[in-house]
Amino acid sequence: MNWTDLITESRMVTSIYGGATSLAHFALEDLVFSGRSVRLRGDFAQMPDPLPERWASCGFTRAGATFNASDVVEAKVTGMPQLHFDDRHCLEGDPVSLAVEQTKCIWTAPDGTERPYIVLSGNSDFLEFRFVCKNLRVGVKGYTPAPY
Q: Which range has the worst mean pLDDT, 29-33, 135-139, 142-146?
């Protein structure tokens, strides 16, 4: 099972990548808590191949992604995201290896459907986290960073 099989509206990723892209070396820039939700924002290490036509025509050089975990029932974080300037003086996140898995625990949706909880986790030398949630959405967008 691919990690995209576990997220809500997987086509937001698979339509751009043609499947599930690697979660290794995700350049994490933001980790934001809001109520019972958590948002991670950063860049996938690999660009889609082939590039979407619009991305190619705009000259996009990065594949930005936002992971939105909602109805979080468990959260554990040790450390902080680390940022640095690349060779073009653009701010980027240091890499974190992400994982998306399901638990054996089940919750019941309002329509009566039983679903597994989803685990979004990450680790690196500077950061470890684990979020258990009911829903996980991932959006992807192409862009070119601007120097500071």
A: 142-146
